Amino acid sequence: MNAIFGELDHPPRLLMGPGPINVHPRVLRAMSVQLLGQFDPEFTAYMNQTMALYRQVFETQNRWTFLINGTSRAGIEAAMVSVLAPGDHAVVINAGRFGLLLMEIAQRCGARITTVEAPWGSVVDANAVEDAIKRVRPRLVAGVYGDTSTTIAQPMSEIGALCRHYDTLLYVDATATLAGMPAPVDAWGADLVTAGLQKCLGGPSGSAPITISERAAEHIFSRRHVERGLAGAPAMEPKGERIASNYFDLAMIMDYWSERRLNHHTEAASMLYAARECARLVLEEGLPERFARHAQAGQAVVAAAQAMGLEVFGDPAYKMTNVTAIHIPTGIDGERVRARMRDDFEIEIGSAFGSLAGRVWRIGAMGVNARKHAILSTFAALEAVLRQEGFSVRGGAGVDAALSVYQGS
Ligand SMILES: Cc1ncc(COP(=O)(O)O)c(C=O)c1O
Predict the structure, then answer these.
(1) Does a structural domain hold residue 176?
(2) Whose CA is nearest to atom 8 of ligand 1?
(3) Which residue ranges have their beta carbon within 6 Å of ligand 1?
(4) Residues 335 and 273 both lie in one domain
(5) How many domains does the chain have?
(6) How far is CA 303 from the centre of its chain?
(7) Which domain holds residue 37?
(8) Are both 121 and 219 inside the same structural domain?
(9) Which of 80, 93, 145, 148 best tests ligand 1's pocket when mutated (most atoms within 8 Å of CB)?
(10) Measured by CB atoms within 10 angstroms of the end CB, which terminus of the chain is less buried, N or C?
(11) Span 220-235, average pLDDT
């Protein structure tokens, strides 16, 4: 007999890793709203509202601010493949797993890559980026603002100024920071910025907000080739080197999100409802207030870890507020600790990738979880588990330190 399995029925778990995190209840409710046809005026109004909301979240005037259906890397791929044609030069800022991902995606687009690198835990020097730009005069500079793998945020305003000066486009992956740390797209002078919902925006993964400057949009439209079954208008004659992906062809996706409403994919309505509600929540709270809440949560995590005698990874001057990497103490089995946190306390903390795998845990405090109770519960549990695993820690040290951040002492 074929099994039909049970209904989804797991205990509530506190997700304190680097994302995904617990989804705000209002976002879950929005996702259960009934669907509409994709050209229903009520639905296209929701699309326009979502564009307006994300302009505010990205702190931009960019007309082209919308959603890519797919997880955060769908946003990255759409930006890269729509800008980079085979043979174009790209400079990639790489100091972590997601810098490496940008390199890989740019390579798959057939671009010629120049990397500017720094060891994991630090940031790339803007002078080195300038040297690379001067050397290769790239079409695109690409970097990560908040590489979740290292918990370090590369400053972007100086890179944006360089890109303006040398007239090159700047792409920024703000997946792990948007709505948690300031990411002022226009003030940076960034041309394409993408994100995901499952971090500081407090939603599920599966939708990638994107914003695109006029200069970048002009370049993308210079490669516009409308699908054969839709073409017709004289203004839509095929132009330039065709974008190598159909699904991630931003020129076609922008036609879909414009008044033209030229059909491309079928918009993932439930994800649009989720993204819209995430942005409403962010803006109701206020960007400065939300950044401050994430910063305070990050301080509490660091204070708790240090009070327990644990060492925080990476250059503190550039540390993301919302994710903290903590060295696993010598002699402690990091995976056993994570398993006990989950099995005994229903709390998830993160492992790590690449050269940091097995060396650090990553604790995120994002979205609804960037709050006192979530951090106190996490550190109360971590203390108990570490004591059980033979690590000597004064009872209550971490919780007291986190509490004192919230009490302002
Ligand atoms: C900085 C950064 N970029 C890109 C990604 C890829 O995101 P997704 O898994 O949603 O495709 C992640 C995921 O953790 C990330 O942290």
Answers:
(1) yes
(2) 72
(3) 19, 71-73, 98, 144, 146-148, 173, 175-176, 196, 205
(4) no
(5) 2
(6) 25
(7) 25-282
(8) yes
(9) 148
(10) N
(11) 81
Mutate to test the pocket of ligand 1, among 73, 147, 151 (most ligand atoms within 8 A of CB): 73
Please give the distance, rounded to the nearest whole angstrom, from the Cα atom of residue 198 to the centre of ligand 1.
9
In a domain, 2, yes or no: no
pLDDT at 232: 64
How much distance in Å is there from the Cα of 73 to the middle of ligand 1? 6
Q: For residue 197, give the CATH number of its domain.
A: 3.40.640.10
Average per-residue pLDDT for the chain: 96
Q: What is the mean pLDDT of residues 205-224?
A: 98
Q: Indicate yes or no: pTM above 0.90.
A: yes
Cα 272 to ligand 1 centroid, rounded to whole Å = 19
175 CA from centroid of ligand 1 (Å): 6
Residues 253 and 332 in one domain: no
Q: Give the separation between CA 252 and CA 228, rounded to whole angstroms.
A: 12
In the predicted model, what is the mean pLDDT of residues 55-63?
Answer: 98
Mean per-residue pLDDT for 370-395?
A: 97
pLDDT interval class at 28 (50, 70, 90): very high
Pairwise CA distance, residues 67 & 207, whole Å:
6
pLDDT tens digits along 85-116 = 999 999 999 999 999 999 999 999 999 999 99
pLDDT band at 234 (very low <50, low <70, confident <90, very high): low
Say yes or no: 188 and 250 in one domain: yes
